[in-house]
Amino acid sequence: MSYEETAETARVISVREAAPTDAVTIADFNSAIARETEDKSLDPAVVGPGVAALLEDASKGRYWVAESGRAIVGQLM
């Protein structure tokens, strides 16, 4: 079965615990948030491994992502 996004499904937002496969998106979002709110550029060589380490070890923290359709549209740590 193929997935087709409709106007109705596009409005649905679901929340789930982030997975290691979400690391790149979360790191990109973290960098965008820092640029927008603090006018700071984060070093991708630091942000990426930091996000990956957290996703691999829940004792460091947990990320949750919000999805609309199949796209991540928000995050929370």
In what range is the share of β-strand residues?
15-25%
- Rough shape? globular
Give the radius of gyration: 14 Å
In whole angstroms, the N-to-C terminal distance is: 33 Å
Mean residue pLDDT: 91
SSE pattern, N- to C-terminal? HEHHEE
Binned, the helix content reads 40-55%
**Strands of the biggest beta sheet: in what spatial order?**
1-2-3
Total strand segments: 3
Query: Major beta sheet, specifics?
Result: 3 strands, antiparallel
Summed up, the helix count is 3
Could you list the spans in which at least 5 consecutive residues all have pLDDT below 50? none
Structural class: alpha+beta
Structural overview:
It is a single chain. This protein has helices at residues 7-10, 23-38, 44-56; strands at 13-17, 64-68, 71-76. It has 77 residues and is α+β, with helices and mostly antiparallel strands. A hairpin with a 2-residue loop joins β2 and β3 (71-76). The mean pLDDT is 91.
Question: What topology emerges from the helices and strands here?
Answer:
Layout: H1 7-10, E1 13-17, H2 23-38, H3 44-56, E2 64-68, E3 71-76
Antiparallel strand pairs: 1-2, 2-3
Defining traits:
3 helices, alpha+beta, globular, 77 residues, three-stranded antiparallel beta sheet
How would you briefly describe this protein structure?
The chain has three helices and three strands; from the N terminus they run αβααββ. It is α+β, with helices and mostly antiparallel strands and 77 residues long.
